[in-house]
Amino acid sequence: IEKDLESEEQERVSADMRIRKSQHAVLSRKFVEVMTKYNEAQVDFRERSKGRIQRQLEITGKATTDEELEEMLESGNAAVFTAGIVDSGISKQALSEIESRHKDIVRLESSIKELHEWFV
Question: pTM, whole model, 2 decimals?
Answer without folding.
Answer: 0.51
